[in-house]
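In line with agreed milestones, the collection of sequences with tokenised folds has grown. One record among many is set out beneath this paragraph:
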Amino acid sequence: MVPAAARRAARPASRREPEGTLNTLWGHGGAYQTWTEYLTRWAEEGGAGTAAAAARLPRLRPEDYHHETWVRLVNQLTGAVGHRLQAWADSLTGALAEAAADEFAAGRALVQSRTGLDTVRALASHPSLPEDLRTQLRTLVDGQIENLQRQLEDQLTRAVRGGADPTWAEQRRRTLRDNPLTTAAGATGAGSAAPPAPGGGWSYDPATPARRRVITD
């Protein structure tokens, strides 16, 4: 008599489940794993360390996943984008603080910081994402950028109320408006995850002394 364990092992293999079904059962494997691993790395390193991997990201389709799995993946996407935006904002505000008395340096920081925005927009516009998700991500990114622009100007108003020099505040406000973050390249979506400059989204070292003017009086 054949043992029960052997009989079970001898049964014909069950029909292979679609990749999306395996993803929903185990939470890993296939396109799901590729994307989640990429997002984890990208959130920490930005596009500079993940450009080659971005070009190989597989297409994602919500119909390939259970609803809960798809929601988890979308949450990872938005979380990674939020993390990069926060890191970019921290770098920019730090550079502007160092340039407190130098409008040329402040303008330079604003212009050069746009590289980081292009990196985030590139992920939000990745062609392997569904169009409706790309639209939602770009809306999220652009909304955060516009919000930071407003916050920077609002800080000047509060600074004057707190005793800061109104002339300096007006000069800084003009610098912000002459070099708006909202004009970063790729505002309508790059369509691909283009590689950014090295340095986590900055194309220069904010501490490096300025060599030429980028704004005029």
About this structure: The radius of gyration is 23 Å. Residues 67-98 form the longest helix (32 residues).
